[in-house]
Task: structure prediction
Amino acid sequence: MPKDDVIVGLDIGTTKICAIIAELTEEGGLKIVGVGTTKSDGLRRGVVVNIEKTVQSITKAIEDAELMAGVEARGVYAGIAGDHIRSINSKGIIAVSRENSDITTDDVRRVIEAAQAAHIPMEREVIHVIPQEFIVDDQRGIRDPVGMSGIRLEAEVHIVTGAVASAQNIVKSIHRAGFEVYDLVLEPLASSYSALTEDEKDLGVSIFDIGGGTTDIAFFSRGSIRRTSVLGLAGDNLTNDIAIGLRTPAHHAREIKEKFGCALSSQVDSTEMIDVASAAGQSNRQVSRQLLASIIQPRVEEILNLAFREIEEFGDLMAAGIVLSGGTSGLNGIVELAEDITKLPVRVGKPTGVTGLVNMVDDPKFSTGVGLVMYGAEQDSISSKFRGDDSSLFNKVMDRMKQWLTDLW
Result:
């Protein structure tokens, strides 16, 4: 039977689909109790291109996690990425009209909705409206204005949108697999929950989540998200380059990348040799590992340069530097290369802040999956805080999902 204290994160990636099941502990923490990972066959650059294959992969990943956890999942917090993602910053202003001028949760809802009134094309769907800060009578930098006194309330928000069709196809795939969708979560936002610290978000930090099909970028400052972007270049491009450069099948190229890949050719011994499987059943060949690195490095440089260009205007505000996550961030030499390109401190971010099966998720490729359950736990807390206010922005998430499903069926 499903348990009420179980939260499921579903990272729907281009190369893998990962399900993470966590339980809320009595102390209010999160305990990882199940992990399921399977190959993703139905996506390209984060977008569903084959629903049936995607459904099969989702079902397998969640069933494996359920078997390990010994619990049944009811619904999931699912990640969304893809180069169809767009974001804008917007501002809303309202008057606080009541006699005592005390700001309530209803005022917060109204000012966020006013900020959300920015023009959104019909073919795009709002994924997130994230408050950055509130301003009460010209007093800036307020994170929670509830209970304060003022006659004018302003909100600066970050709005993330995605292509309606792409969002609906993710929802449809999960629904066909037999699970509810509690929310769609932008993947770099999810990764930030597990890979970044609050101090880093306050000081100024960017996260580059380099997965298989996309590189997801987010910049944080003063505790809030300020910029998000998605690039359609990532680990699969490295695999393709290796397959062509070494004339080897793609699945062998991926294995070679994961076992011997290095993003800096200068770090590799020129005498070290590796076996490479040839196409069409021919005998294996030996090539130098430095040749492999010379194929990988230019593509990694391109990805890092394009990612940095997205947030370069905030360079002076990134006191905490850049955090790399996602499977491709495990490449040897990538930290040094990123520091050379950006001239900022760089580290690899692994999931933190959870207990339980931590050894199974102690890898940057699990940052999004673990971050999704952490996001889910936070939303459950917010929902309970605002429960009973049917008009609340926070309770419109389920209405949005239901409307998508109504449109689909």
